Amino acid sequence: MNQFDLSNKVAIVTGASRGIGEAIAWAFVAAGANVVITGRSSERVDAAAAAINLIYPGRALPIAAHAGEPDSAKTIVDQAVTYYDRVDIAVNNAATNPHFGPLLEAGPSHWDKILDVNVKGYFYVCQAAAQQMIRQGQGGKLINVASIAGLEPGPMMGVYSVSKAAVIMLTKVLAVELGKDHIQVNAIAPGFVKTKFSAALWQNATLAKGLTDRTPAGRMADAKEITGAALYLASAASDFTTGAVLTVDGGYTLT
Ligand SMILES: NC(=O)c1ccc[n+]([C@@H]2O[C@H](COP(=O)([O-])OP(=O)(O)OC[C@H]3O[C@@H](n4cnc5c(N)ncnc54)[C@H](OP(=O)(O)O)[C@@H]3O)[C@@H](O)[C@H]2O)c1
Q: What is d(CA 76, CA 200) in angstroms, rounded to the nearest whole number?
């Protein structure tokens, strides 16, 4: 038996029109799953789904949805069930960081936006997906993409760091509460991954050098390098793993 096989599974991946989410969606489809992918821009998410469907016909459903809106999660789960009949895996990946600077300079709009999308949005997807998994009665997998910034303070990213620490505790609380329903809830804490989201870091030569010099692997990651952790946490291979935070950072947090 291939423990990493996702045949007949249905996975939701938020923020999957590019970057880490898109790479995870491709990895899940390659492992046999159907995927429901989201993003704010319908143009971008439609294009990402079309690229998957070109190689794997009918295996990706795009939904334009804003992760910070309370009703989005229910809509995404309802559409997943309408289109693919079930939900087995949900990956919270869509996140935002509109504030780069000292924490004392963060204003109410920064806090509201970051907590709405990164924390409350993650909770709403976990809630709607878990309720569907409980109705199905066959367990499931919730995966929250956190960050090493949730484990140690991210420089100039204070509100974001607080939000990612909250994601880690959300993961642990749900892992305890959903154990009896055979739903495993885990987090991934990526280090520095070269995507649009982290462009402010890697486009600044000084910052980029500081980060890669501190990383034992000596470089940033490609988004594809986060997919192994996601596949493990989405598959039967992780059936006795819950409440874990899987750090994928090239050793950065060890130094
Ligand atoms: N890159 C890194 O170094 C790094 C490190 C640690 C953790 N992470 C985490 O990894 C996750 C993915 O980051 P990434 O680097 O892959 O980012 P990215 O390349 O910028 O991709 C973000 C994706 O999320 C979508 N998105 C953004 N805001 C959204 C919202 N409010 N509602 C719905 N979709 C939204 C984007 O599409 P639209 O623009 O069309 O909405 C896009 O598909 C985030 O949780 C981030 O915190 C990243």
A: 31
